[in-house]
């Protein structure tokens, strides 16, 4: 009997040791979990402040980038319209025009590709509407006071049939004569600008310039568009 108790005692001791070991592990894990369960209030405040500072630094640069992208897209739409009018003129052997306007009330900028002699009323389409450009986000200007006639640069002007902001190509795709049959001017500009207060243009500009009699075009930006 005494020998039996001696044989059982080591097994009991091993079980007790294992139980104590497991209890200690659980206590340690519980303390560790509580210690690393989350952030302190001070840490959260520091993170929020860092996000705010980084946002304040990045926001102006991001806004400037978005504005440049808008005028780039609108400028691409203008040159595409002028090239389309040239193609239609040569294809149909008719003079074709591109006219520009801005609704003063809604600030919607519009463009029309139409045969010469027809009014653009049924041809107007929003400039950049299919590009996600909203009214007032891009300012449209031209240096046109009449068909193929250079004048001073003005922005946000509504269409006037007696003094249209219009560029016209003849049946060969070159600049057509003015309304009075004089030779057309060169240096015809269509300007897209990032707006600032009171319908004035900022220094961020893109433009298309028709600078040869045969209808050659080039693009420019910023001070080159003044």
UniProtKB/TrEMBL annotation:
UniProt-listed NCBIfam families: IV_pilin_GFxxxE (TIGR02532)
SUPFAM superfamilies for the chain: Pili subunits
Domain of life: Bacteria
This protein's UniProt keywords: Membrane, Transmembrane, Transmembrane helix
Organism: Komarekiella delphini-convector SJRDD-AB1
Transmembrane segments annotated in the record for this chain: 44-65
Protein name, UniProt field: Type II secretion system protein
């Amino acid at each position: 009997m005494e020998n039996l108790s001696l044989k059982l005692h080591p097994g009991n001791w091993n079980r007790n040791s294992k139980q104590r070991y497991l209890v200690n592990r659980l206590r340690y894990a519980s303390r560790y979990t509580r210690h690393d369960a989350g952030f302190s209030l001070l840490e959260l405040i520091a993170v929020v402040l860092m996000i705010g500072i980084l946002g304040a630094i990045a926001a102006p640069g991001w806004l400037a980038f978005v504005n440049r992208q808008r005028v780039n897209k609108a400028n691409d739409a203008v040159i595409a319209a002028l090239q389309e009018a040239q193609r239609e003129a040569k294809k149909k052997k008719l003079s074709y025009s591109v006219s520009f306007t801005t609704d003063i009330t809604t600030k919607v900028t519009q463009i029309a590709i139409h045969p010469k002699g027809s009014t653009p009323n049924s041809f107007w389409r929003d400039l950049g509407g299919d590009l996600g450009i909203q009214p007032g986000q891009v300012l449209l200007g031209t240096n046109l006071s009449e068909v193929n006639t250079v004048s001073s640069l003005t922005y946000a002007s509504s269409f006037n049939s007696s003094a249209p902001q219009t560029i016209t190509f003849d049946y060969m795709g070159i600049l057509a004569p003015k309304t009075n049959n004089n030779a057309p001017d060169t240096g015809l500009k269509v300007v897209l600008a990032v707006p600032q207060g009171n319908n004035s243009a900022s220094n961020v500009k893109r433009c298309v310039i028709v600078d040869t009699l045969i209808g050659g075009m080039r693009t420019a930006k910023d001070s080159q568009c003044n």
